[in-house]
Amino acid sequence: MWSIRVVLLISIIVLLSACGFTLRGQQIPQSLLSHLTLESTAQHSGLHQSTQAFFEQQGLTATDSNGNIDNTMVLEPENIERRLLSVFSTGQVAEYELIYNVRYSLSIGEQPPIFYEFVLTREYQDDPRQVLAKTRELNLVLNELRQEAARTIYQRLPANITQQLGR
User: Fold this and answer.
1) What is the fold, at CATH topology level, of the domain defined by 30-165?
2) What pLDDT, on the 0 to 100 scale, is given for residue 165?
3) With CB atoms 3.0 to 4.6 Å apart as the test, which of 18, 24, 100, 108 could cross-link to 145 if both were Cys?
């Protein structure tokens, strides 16, 4: 009896993997996103550009061609804080933590907007021997945080839409 269950379970797994079945998570309704407008209170912010590029990469055109704005996402200005984590024995800074606070609102149709917020953190080392590379490293870390923030916004969008429609 036990061996029959094992064989049956293995057969089901093989059949499911052979047909290409994969879990995909929540899907974003295309009808809701066909008229999503992505706006930002800071005109040319890095977060806005990263989010718009990520949305387009996912096949979501974040503009409205009819002039009717049905669904709007507004990105607030990015808030970046830097916290000291450790120092060398000489007193020079050895390690920082970047705290990247993302705030945005979503309004669907005539519903009032709902505000959302999340925080991303990254640690990076501050090598005093590499003075010229400090700014470049900071910019690389910030770009990575912006891309992760765009991905997080997109992944949370189905739940945000469900919450907005459930009001």
Assistant:
1) Double Stranded RNA Binding Domain (3.30.160)
2) 73
3) 100
